Amino acid sequence: MRRFNPSSKHPDRAVQAWLILINAAMNRQTLTYEGLSQKMYQRKAQGVLDRILGHIAFYCIDEGLPPLTSIVVGKKRGAPGADIPIDLSQFDAERERVYSTDWFDIYPPSAEELSAALVNHKS
Q1: Cβ–Cβ contacts within 10 Å for residue 26, how many?
Q2: Positive or negative, the Cα torsion across 23, 84, 45, 16?
Q3: How confident is the model at residue 7 (pLDDT cuts 50, 70, 90)?
Q4: Of 34, 35, 93, 95, which has the maximum CB count within 10 A?
């Protein structure tokens, strides 16, 4: 059985984040970066989440999905970080699109698919 561990690569951690985020979305919850890092790493590690969430953000763009990463917000800002590709003027509407999507009906992307999405947007 495979488990997520400290040496897991970013695309693998993006799969882990996907699972956490779709559960939160289906329950109409937002998560702070700190809260997400606690769930993923059992400690404060929010500084590494931008690259991990980038995989998901670009996958959602490529697949025409609502921006799942929009439900992860800074504790003080109450909005996604600057590195997350979302139009903040549409933040509330986009978050509602995330909440109204049946994420459990969408087959989760693989680490390879998430990695490809990030690479496609970096080039």
Answers
A1: 14
A2: positive
A3: confident
A4: 95
- Please state the length of the chain: 123
Q: What is the pLDDT of residues 23-77, one digit of tens each?
A: 999 999 999 989 999 998 877 765 678 889 999 999 999 999 999 999 998 776 6
Q: 96: closest CA among 68, 121, 77, 123? A: 68
Compute the distance between CA of residue 10 and CA of residue 81 in angstroms, rounded to an integer: 18
Helix, strand, or coil here: 76? Answer: coil
Angle formed by the axes of helices 49-63 and 10-26, to 10°?
A: 70
DSSP 107: P
Does the pLDDT of residue 111 top 60, yes or no? Answer: yes
Half-sphere exposure of 74 (CA within 13 A, CB side): 10
- Give the largest CA-CA distance in the chain: 43
Q: Taking each helix axis as running N to C, give the angle between helix 111-122 and helix 49-63, from 0 to 180 degrees, rounded to the nearest 10.
A: 90
SS3 assignment, position 32: strand
- Predicted confidence at residue 94, as pLDDT, reads 85
* Per-residue pLDDT, 44: 74
